[in-house]
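Hi D.,

Good news: the full-assembly prediction came through. Inputs first.
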Amino acid sequence: MPTDSPPDARELRLVVDLNRCQSYGQCVYAAPDVFRFHGEEALEYDYAPDPRLRREVERATAACPVQAITLGRATEPAPLASEPVQ
Amino acid sequence: MTSTTHQHTASDLFAQALRYEHRANPYPYYEQLLRQPVIRMDDGTWLASGHREISLLLRDPRISADRLPPQHQRPIRKSLLVEDPPRHDQLRRLVTQQFVPRVMGMRDHIDALVTGLLDAHTSERAGQLDVVGDLAYPLPVTVICELLGVPREDESLFGSLARRLTRGLDPIDTQTEDEIRELQQARGELVEYLEGLIARHDATGGDDLLSGLMHSQEPDGPMDPVDLRVTLGLLLIAGHETTVNLIANGTLALLRHPDALARLRTDPDLATPLVEEVLRYDPPVQMSGRSTLADIDIAGTTIPKGSRVRLLLAAGNRDPQRFADPDRFVPDRPDNAHLGFGGGIHYCIGATLARAEAQIALTALARRLESPRLIADPPPYRENAILRGPERLPVSFTRLVPGAGEA
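Then the structure:
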């Protein structure tokens, strides 16, 4: 695994809009330590992942086809899941 | 008469977009088609170009993935690409179970393959590289062969078959009679090749995907020999003819946007959103197809039951209703819900793999090529209109630095 960028030590805060989530599973492939399937469809995730996993989490955020994942920092208020764009 | 004029125009615009002389830039035609997000064509088929409309149709249970024209000969067994639930779901589950664990943790191996392919051209002096022939093609082919358990030596055989078969995906009226005849022959040759491969495949050993599908202990498995052959053919061709275009289209975008190239050189984290933007801006798969199982009301019109519908993914990706400044290449574009991998239950099964290959290949090119320049702009394009991309992508450089020390 490339580790060329210094890990950002600040804590991460993750919000997944489960109304938007369609179980594409792209986040599970991109960041298996953070996202996993519980049973067939339900998504489970770690809302405060280890900051060292930042890169994987960013990849997962970008890979989500419906943009259901929002990544913020614990020092900021937890971001509200955005409404679907029309 | 206004509406007939409109319909006539849409059919003409679509025909123009498909013409080979417009292959390098069909986007101005898509832009005009977007004025009507869903429209009936002169031949009775339908065309959806709006982002919202395509997204809805991709997820609509009243839509079938069977897109063959009614007069077309039906295949004996449908692949999961054109199959509907519940059979689609059984086939897809089996493939996913085999595919996903093998793709996870492949990044280092892909990185090593990219390094090796570029090392072959390392040079302290000015030189040239064909990004398609030297990197964008051999990389995904090697990866898919390893993954599936297909001998790399057979590449010259199935490579040309894949090429002829994907041309067959294009609208029939853009193909010549010779091409259609060739297509029939290629189909037969592929069946023969795959049956031989399955028969020869070591029935006990090997931890490749083919072995996995043959011996799956899952509730839906193992696959019977016909499904196995059809699925293997699909994965082999899809692995062959799509990622090559993603890497080539990405390289092309970088060379046309030197600021993005400079940023990627110093910031490898840019690779993730940048590849998403390539998938939006210049997607390897330009369109998909479906048929309707019921009347569907959409965008102020009704698509009748039994219609064939083309989903112009590449147009939806440039829909100004969804994307700000859609014709601009923005490497870190936020909220980029592009249609590059389709959507709904048929969402590209290889998306994770394609992303990893493109992120790694484009980052390596940005880092290792000094002063890269396109030799021909636009480059020569392949004939294919749907799986669209450059035939060759010759790039000159002042130096191609060694890959050693890559972090």
